[in-house]
Amino acid sequence: DLFGSVEPLLPSLREDGVAVWVLGAGPYPPGVVALQELLDAASEELEPEDVWEPEDMNDTCLYIFTSGTTGLPKAARVSHLKSVMCLSFYELVGASSRDVVYLALPLYHMAGSLLGVVGCLGIGATCVLKEKFSASQFWDDVRAEGVTVFQYIGELCRYLVNQPQRPGERQHGLRLAVGSGLRPDVWRSFQQRFGPVRIVETYGMSEGNVTLFNYTG
């Protein structure tokens, strides 16, 4: 969907030796790698471990773009070790394989991809992926999908609190909300309005090596 924004830059990207990969049906100009064709042609048999197993767990696994707090957005190196550690994220906040996790965060950021999707894989939980967050549809989605855990970024909870009151707002199965950036006043309003949902506030950075968890509330 975003290829049209990149296409005018292709000549300069080629000069800089930057490869462009696109997931989706082509055709694409020369020099652009169509990943869907490669995926369709790939064997379902696993390659031998020595092909895909990293030599060093501290080697780069992937790059995650930061939000640009200290300047323009930039790519932060994420090691294989840090990626594997994200498997235990939901276990650390009290979730289990019985939970249904609601995720509406961008998957190109660490919160959505590594903590969210990889975290669900780590505990074997069901993940409900929402393409775009909707404050007006949120509680309907929670009830319809049997959601028990909600991963937020602080503003999402404020959007929910600012919605007009509707009947049945406390009739849901949500028991845990986990995320970053929730202001104290929104925290209190959220629990007063929507019921005794346990909130675990966390803080970490894609390029950091320390993460904080507020277990006490």
Automatic annotation (TrEMBL):
<dbReference type="Pfam" id="PF00501">
    <property type="entry name" value="AMP-binding"/>
</dbReference>
<dbReference type="InterPro" id="IPR042099">
    <property type="entry name" value="ANL_N_sf"/>
</dbReference>
<dbReference type="GO" id="GO:0005886">
    <property type="term" value="C:plasma membrane"/>
</dbReference>
<keyword id="KW-0443">Lipid metabolism</keyword>
<dbReference type="GO" id="GO:0005789">
    <property type="term" value="C:endoplasmic reticulum membrane"/>
</dbReference>
<keyword id="KW-0436">Ligase</keyword>
<protein>
    <recommendedName>
        <fullName>Long-chain-fatty-acid--CoA ligase</fullName>
    </recommendedName>
</protein>
<dbReference type="GO" id="GO:0004467">
    <property type="term" value="F:long-chain fatty acid-CoA ligase activity"/>
</dbReference>
<comment type="similarity">
    <text>Belongs to the ATP-dependent AMP-binding enzyme family.</text>
</comment>
<dbReference type="InterPro" id="IPR000873">
    <property type="entry name" value="AMP-dep_synth/lig_dom"/>
</dbReference>
<dbReference type="InterPro" id="IPR020845">
    <property type="entry name" value="AMP-binding_CS"/>
</dbReference>
<feature type="domain" description="AMP-dependent synthetase/ligase">
    <location>
        <begin position="48"/>
        <end position="211"/>
    </location>
</feature>
